[in-house]
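Q: I'm building a small set of examples for a reading group on sequence design. Run inverse folding on the following structure and report the sequence directly after it, with nothing in between.
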């Protein structure tokens, strides 16, 4: 890394060598990508979404390409928190960057039990995915209504002794109210946005592409909306924000930082270009040099 450009940032007391983080669900536990480039160059990695018990994920088609993006209905396939603690953490630790454990759940009890386990494990931060459907409330995601989100974040905060990130859904009734509720309930940081609810239809079969009908839309197509949401949230909260949503280039990274984000997560681009993390980071150094930016933090929130 060029000594004339400082990319290091700090979030909730955790130092990151740079603001680029591999987003959950797009990078596994890092091993596959590390065969292609040294993923230790990234500031951090957010793990595959974990649940209290192992999950096989959804049946049928799971990924569908769209114009300037993709849709997914993977269904949180993962080995479960216990297996992650036994084997996944050691794998991720070898890379030498910030280890973020991403966790979802389908009930308050799942969230609390999972957070308690991970809080006692060798992770640096816990990222709480509140976009999961609450099975006890008819399938509505925890991250739709601010008061429901406040309850689950507070319950997790009570058992979590690690820095707590709450990952927000863009499908929330009001993303700013949601962010403020999570901050009030004890979140140390926020990450946004998760995927947008969307749909695809197979006109030949005359039926929805996905078994669950709706799926999550990500990719370059959502960036302008995600950027607006990150900007709006950063105007109202005091905690640091991880911005994400359609980040493909170093210019995208700077846009999110200028909108107020402290760090930026990359997701769908990893499927388009498996070397994206390395490439974007290298380009970010050159871009900062071209723009006369000696420390990336100096342009945070300028917009």
């Amino acid at each position: 890394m060029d000594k004339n450009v400082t990319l290091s940032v700090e979030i909730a007391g955790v130092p990151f060598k740079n603001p680029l983080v591999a987003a959950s669900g797009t990078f596994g536990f890092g091993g596959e990508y590390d065969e292609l480039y040294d993923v230790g160059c990234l500031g951090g990695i957010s793990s595959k979404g974990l649940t209290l018990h192992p999950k096989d994920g959804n049946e049928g088609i799971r990924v569908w390409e769209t114009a300037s993006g993709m849709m997914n209905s993977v269904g949180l396939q993962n080995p479960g928190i216990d297996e992650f603690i036994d084997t996944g953490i050691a794998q991720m630790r070898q890379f030498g960057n910030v280890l973020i454990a991403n966790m979802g759940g389908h009930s308050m009890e799942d969230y609390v039990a999972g957070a308690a386990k991970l809080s006692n494990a060798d992770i640096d931060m816990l990222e709480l995915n509140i976009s999961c459907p609450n099975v006890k409330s008819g399938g509505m995601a925890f991250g739709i209504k601010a008061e429901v989100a406040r309850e689950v974040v507070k319950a997790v905060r009570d058992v979590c002794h690690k820095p707590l990130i709450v990952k927000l859904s863009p499908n929330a009734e009001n993303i700013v109210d949601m962010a403020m509720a999570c901050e009030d309930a004890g979140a140390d940081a926020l990450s946004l946005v998760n995927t947008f609810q969307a749909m695809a239809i197979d006109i030949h079969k005359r039926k929805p592409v996905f078994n669950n009908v709706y799926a999550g839309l990500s990719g370059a197509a959502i960036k302008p909306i995600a950027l607006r949401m990150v900007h709006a949230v950063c105007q109202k909260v005091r905690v640091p924000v991880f911005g994400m949503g359609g980040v493909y280039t170093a210019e995208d990274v700077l846009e999110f930082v200028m909108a107020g984000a402290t760090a930026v997560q990359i997701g769908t681009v990893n499927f388009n270009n498996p070397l994206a993390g390395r490439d974007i980071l290298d380009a970010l150094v050159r871009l900062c040099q071209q723009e006369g930016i000696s420390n990336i933090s100096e342009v945070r929130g300028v917009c």
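Residues 85 and 121 are 7 Å apart (CA to CA).
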